[in-house]
Amino acid sequence: MTWLVADDQGVTLRLHIQPGAKKTEVAGLHGEALKIRLAAPPVDGKANACLIAFLSRQFGVAKASISLVSGDTSRAKRVRINGVGAALVRGALLPRD
Length: 97
Known about the structure:
Elements (H helix, E strand, L loop, with lengths): L3 E3 L3 E9 L6 E6 L2 E5 L8 H14 L6 E5 L5 E7 L3 H8 L4
Parallel strand pairs: 2-4
Antiparallel strand pairs: 1-2, 2-6, 3-4, 5-6
């Protein structure tokens, strides 16, 4: 899966963000990225803050463990999450079959 890269420290996610949605949720795969809809608007960093808070709740990690690697003002983002493994990420973000 190209949207998820794991190493000894944690994972890096390739995300496609849709700000201004009705609710914050995972929307499935979008090309080689995981699409996440955010209820926050794309102004003054609100969407990025909403994304970090959402991921923090999904994985039970502190917001400080999550960092935006690239895409600060773009829909295409790379996010680093320290202290979690690939299996936990897949289980929390991908729909169950």
